[in-house]
Amino acid sequence: MSLFKARDWWSTVLGEKEEFDQGCLCLADVDNTGNGQDKVIVGSFMGYLRIFNPHPVKTGEGTQAEDLLLEVHLRDPILQVEVGKFVSGTEMLHLAVLHSRKLCVYSVSGTLGNVEHGNQYQIKLMYEHNLQRIACNMTYGSFGGVKGRDLICIQSMDGMLMVFEQESYAFGRFLPGSLLPGPLAYSSRTDSFITVSSCRQVESYKYQVLAFATDADKRQETEQQKLGSGKRLVVDWTLNIGEQALDICIVSFNQSASSVFVLGERNFFCLKDNGQIRFMKKLDCSPSCFLPYCSVSEGTINTLIGNHNNMLHIYQDVTLKWATQLPHVPVAVRVGCLQDLKGVIVTLSDDGHLQCSYLGTDPSLFQAPKVESRELNYDELDIELKELQKIIKDVNKSQGVWPMIEKEDDLKVSAMVSPNFDSVSQATDVEVGTDLVRSVTVKVTLQNRVALQKAKLSVYVQPPLVLTRDQFTFEFMAPEMTRTVAFSVYLKGSYTPPELEGNAVVSYSRPTDRNPDGIPRVIQCKFRLPLKLICLPGQPSKTASHKLTIDTNKSPVSLLSLFPGFANQSEDDQVNVMGFRFLGGSQVTLLASKTSQRYRIQSEQFEDLWLVTNELIIRLQEYFEKQGIKDFACSFSGSMPLQEYFELIDHHFELRINGEKLEELLSERAVQFRAIQRRLLTRFKDKTPAPLQHLDTLLDGTYKQVIALADAVEENQDNLFQSFTRLKSATRLVILLIGLWQKLSADQIAILEAAFLPLQQDTPELGWEETVDAAISHLLKTCLSKSSKEQALNLSSQLSMPKDTSRLKKHITLLCDRLAKGGRLCLSTDAAAPQTMVMPGI
Predict the structure, then answer these.
(1) Helices vs strands, H then E, count in the chain
(2) 371 falls in which pLDDT band (50, 70, 90)?
(3) Percent of the chain at pLDDT above 70?
(4) Is 629 helix (H, G, I), strand (E, B) or coil?
(5) Tell me, what's the pLDDT at 822?
(6) Using alpha carbons only, what angle is made at residue 228 by residues 227 and 233, rounded to the nearest 5 degrees?
(7) Is the pLDDT higher at 839 or at 568?
(8) Distance between CA 591 and CA 579 in Å, rounded?
(9) How do 61-62 and 7-13 pair as beta strands?
(10) Which long-range contacts (CB under 8 A, 24 or more apart) does 602-605 make?
(11) What gap in Å lies between CA 73 and CA 94, rounded to an integer?
(12) What is the pLDDT, as a whole number, of residue 118?
């Protein structure tokens, strides 16, 4: 992009931590040399006035000491600087400086130096006006058609125009309906002031109308004014531009016509003298300043527009002719003649970067070196490509997409769950009923090898399990430090959690030589909570609605040895039957067969079977590992309980539908409530009282409906959360049974878990049903597809709430059927083009 950068001719940085705005820059022959060479005048909000005469020895060279002609601290903030014929009795140019409470006019003169230090410049105060109101901006011109002198008009912050005829104050007028001041400009051809009001309208006021209107000091309407002693200030014309204006500029390159240019926040407009739009241009970037500067051909005007993307665009009417890049965001832009170089673009940023540049395309002297050409051996390239693809595939299979880094060397995290309950339970605000809720302590230990920064420990458990504290922060300033934190876990709700596994995640930053702030890393550690935390010994039940049978290849084990503390040791004949009662109230019975190698789990609720079944398999595996037996295996040969699972899915989906209906009703009642409020407010504001026509009764009834609907929405959300927790428990049970049924590997079970449990919680935008349906459809389309025709089916790219659950239940049934017929789950790169599955018996 070097071709389109602004060519730096001269630049400097003004002061330290000073601020500037669009009125702080002016170009003129302020010292009246008469040679047509402009000087750069800059004022800052810190009160510094500087005058530059750039003359670089070499293009692009920085500022020299003699470039700064004058630097004066005026103490008050400088809002705007202008140069014109502001002193009576002479047509010499003088400098007008606008402060917030003062207008000062100076003469700038230079004295020829006799030594090598060069010429000396000084300013002399000609006159000043103390302002009664806080100034915003100013404009100048030959108001009323006066010859040989310029008058000044200042706009105050409260919308008053104050006109000064050089050394004397003329009059002040308030603009009608003024709220905030806008940019102000004077049109000499129509002898009118043009501004943009807070109503986002361009407004034009004739100078003669302002002069003969009612004085601002007599703003209150009196009886004499009613009789016609003063004239009301009326606007000449208005134009609604629909946005706030940043600047106004009026140009007239011939006496026949003039144009009013208005720079908005998104567009810039060119208007005729009478307020009609000549043309407008929608800008792609947010503008910061502009300047119509010349007319190249008849009827066209060139405009410079700076924007917040450090760009300067040159338009010929609405056509973009050139775009150049600046090193800063310009807040003011001017064009002048400096050192006999015409058309120099002078830009000023808000932090004081002053640059004089020109447009051009200086050629780049860099030439790309020639590349050594050689003949390509495509056979060798093909062999090399296959070797690289094999390496990439091996890395992806062994390590995943990202290479594994030994983070354990930096930090080691371990968690230990106390085998006993806390002596004093930490449970508070429990909703379990009459049962005593106990808590258990978990200790997490962190040991670092190197110094680490911003270590943060976050602990997660599945609701309704809660933690007494879940966030910890550490500072490992020195290596080989050990930190241990403890917290308690207890059951808060009256339903069972979908998992007893907790997760401790540590995020930290490791400083390096190149990155002292540290590279972010994450390490996690899982811990398992005891079953007795949510479960008590219960009375076994002989009958139940839901039963599961788990087969093993080893002789049955005494339940007393598997679940110590859950059975009565005095009843030896009952060691093959054990009852569990969850704190929420539901019961589960576990039976061990005396003759066969089977275990039966039964309960009145299907989802309650999950935790006991999973705990039984885990404890059986741990028992046989202690015995040194490695070939222990479990299996499931019964029918898959899909109907019970589908009932939970339907219940969850009904609650989602009910929630949408309740929220829609609540929205309607809220709209109705606000409409009644508006009607009542109108009645109460009316000067002539009118009957309420039972609006107060209707308001009270609507209010009660809104409160009742809000309570119903909140209750439905609680029920939906509990239903989703039960659905996750049932889903984990189904995944476990499918794995035992088809003897799936750990990788295949992980794929099933990713497909069936993609969400930690339901949201109105994305629910469990549509997410799981999309995942299962993808598995059926790829690794479990029967033919290439199914692979060609396109899935919807947008997930939305389905009308019912029939499609999801059909896909789950089809998934189990494909697995029963020999299908296998796979997500490797080969699965992108799966082989056609051969069905047994077909």
Answers:
(1) 11, 43
(2) low
(3) 88
(4) coil
(5) 83
(6) 130
(7) 568
(8) 9
(9) parallel
(10) 602/541, 602/544, 602/546, 602/547, 602/548, 603/544, 603/545, 603/546, 604/544, 604/545, 604/546, 605/546, 605/726
(11) 18
(12) 63
